[in-house]
């Protein structure tokens, strides 16, 4: 199988932005690589069957609207009524899409879209993570309004993104591959004010 090429290849350079002092960097950014990602959607009458199958296959529960369920197995992110992103480590589930399609073979109204190559996932972490994202996003991102475990489909600048608050100071951004480089460069520019450290890619 050909190796998947990151959308940020050629522009991803670990190091400091906005400061030369590592201790002064109040932000970090990194790309999450090595993920299997599928979009599962269904009609309401199939929701319980989808919930049971995902619970059995990936150990995750369907989240409530604007929520995510995450554990050591991966994450389920709400994407709209009866639509969820399934995100798991590729080394644990390289056959995720095929497994899900086989599991729902007798339910033609359940759709499983393979978006392994269609999304880039960028993690922003640090004490100024929410301040940085507030520069380009119209959502209220204070912790009381967007606590850990929440997710939202929104915009950052001109790019459509899904935000997943994993912790108070850690938020993942899911963006379509074709806009990933533009988003990455914008995050670096806006984050330089706080001192930003680009980390090695996460796997």
Give me the CATH superfamily of the largest domain.
Answer: Probable tRNA modification gtpase trme, domain 1
Number of strands: 12
What sort of overall outline do the alpha carbons produce when their principal axes are compared?
globular
> N-to-C SSE series?
EEEHEEEHEEHEEEHE
Low-confidence stretches: none
Structural class: alpha+beta
Largest sheet: 7 strands, mixed
The CATH architecture of the largest domain would be 2-Layer Sandwich
Which CATH class of the largest domain is shown? Answer: Alpha Beta
Helix content: 10-25%
**Sequence of strands across the biggest β-sheet:** 1-12-2-8-11-10-9
Radius of gyration: 17 Å
How many domains is the backbone divided into? 2
Estimate the strand proportion: 25-35%
Query: How many DSSP H or I helices?
Result: 4
| CATH fold-level topology of the largest domain | Gyrase A, domain 2
Please, what is the average pLDDT? 95
What distance lies between the first and last C-alpha atoms, to the nearest angstrom? Answer: 18 Å
What's the quick description here?
The chain is of the alpha+beta class. Helices cover 20% and strands 34% of the residues. A hairpin with a 2-residue loop joins strand 5 and strand 6.
